[in-house]
Amino acid sequence: QVQLVESGGGLVQPGGSLRLSCTVSGSIFSFGRMGWYRQAPGKQRELVVAETNGGRTNYADSVKGRFTISRDNAKNTLYLQMNSLKPEDAAVYYCRGVAVFSNDEYWGQGTQVTVSS
User: To the nearest whole percent, how much of the chain has pLDDT over 70?
Assistant: First the structure.
């Protein structure tokens, strides 16, 4: 069973940076598309950034220019570099993968990001 494990969350001051990691327990090539989502208290889970068919990426307007998704296939790891963090970025961040053949969704357990002075 493939698993996704997020790490890298924590407390950061406004304007600071964090890099989240999502490590795949099997092969990252099991997933054709991956992405990051977040859920703040009392709100629905929302897209942060997702890879699309054709190798493009789709960023939420609220994070464009501040967040960057990347992969290290050799390490089976997906990253989310978050810069210029704002209090409204605080949430639990989840990694999502869509399996290549079955299109089944896989989610990690989430990592908490807190942005506060």
Answer: 100
pLDDT at position 96 is: 97
Backbone phi and psi for residue 29, each to the nearest 5 degrees, phi listed first: -75, -5
- Per DSSP (E only), the strands in the chain are 4-7, 10-12, 18-24, 31-39, 46-51, 57-59, 67-72, 77-82, 91-99, 105-107, 111-115
Question: 31: closest CA among 84, 114, 108, 110?
Answer: 108
Q: Give me the torsion for CA of 36, 78, 90, 105, rounded to 10°.
A: 30
pLDDT of residue 20: 98
Which pLDDT score, from 0 to 100, does residue 21 have? 98
Alpha-carbon gap, residue 106 to 34, rounded angstroms: 9
Q: Would you give the distance in Å from CA 92 to the centre of its chain?
A: 10
